[in-house]
């Protein structure tokens, strides 16, 4: 038996703000409507969906337990476009034939853009 990852649930202080962030900067689609307590965002390429859930007041944000990694062919080009839209990534790092850079979403969740999926292996 196998299982495939289909959704990631993100807890948010402001569900609409977090949904807008992922629509604007990463091209997710969804109307922002809260259905069954969740806002569903779909990946344009059919990849993993994001479900935004209202966070409890007691939830502590910004603790690094999960990082969302988005595959992009050109990290520096994506960083430049993101900067024009107000999303600033940190330094570009290089490792084993690919590059990556990190940032945070409005709830301080760690996010990463990486060209790892596009690297050419010897």
Keywords:
122 residues, alpha/beta, Signal recognition particle alu RNA binding heterodimer, srp9/1, 2,3-Dihydroxybiphenyl 1,2-Dioxygenase, domain 1, 2 domains, four-stranded mixed sheet
Fold and architecture overview:
It is globular and about 45 Å long. The model has no long low-confidence stretch (mean pLDDT 88). The chain is built from 2 helices and 7 strands. It is of the alpha/beta class and 122 residues long. The protein has 2 domains: 1-56, Signal recognition particle alu RNA binding heterodimer, srp9/1; 65-122, Roll (2,3-Dihydroxybiphenyl 1,2-Dioxygenase, domain 1). The termini are far apart. The strands form 2 sheets. The chain has a 4-stranded mixed beta sheet with strand order 4-7-6-5, with helices on one face. A 3-stranded mixed beta sheet has the order 1-3-2, covered by helices on one side. Helix content is 18%, strand content 30%. It has helices at 15-26, 75-84; strands at residues 7-12, 38-41, 49-54, 67-71, 93-95, 98-104, 110-114. The longest helix has 12 residues, at 15-26.
């Amino acid at each position: 038996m196998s299982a495939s990852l289909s959704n990631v649930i993100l807890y948010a202080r402001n569900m609409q703000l977090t949904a807008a962030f992922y629509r604007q900067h990463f091209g997710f689609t969804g109307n922002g409507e809260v259905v069954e307590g969740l806002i569903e965002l779909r990946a344009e390429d059919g990849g993993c969906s994001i479900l935004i859930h209202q966070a409890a007041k007691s939830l502590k944000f910004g603790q690094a337990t999960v990082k969302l990694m988005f595959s992009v062919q050109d990290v520096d080009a994506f960083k430049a476009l993101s900067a024009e839209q107000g999303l600033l990534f940190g330094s570009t790092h290089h490792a084993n034939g690919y590059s990556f850079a990190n940032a945070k979403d409005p709830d301080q969740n760690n996010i990463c853009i990486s060209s790892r999926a596009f690297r050419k292996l010897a």
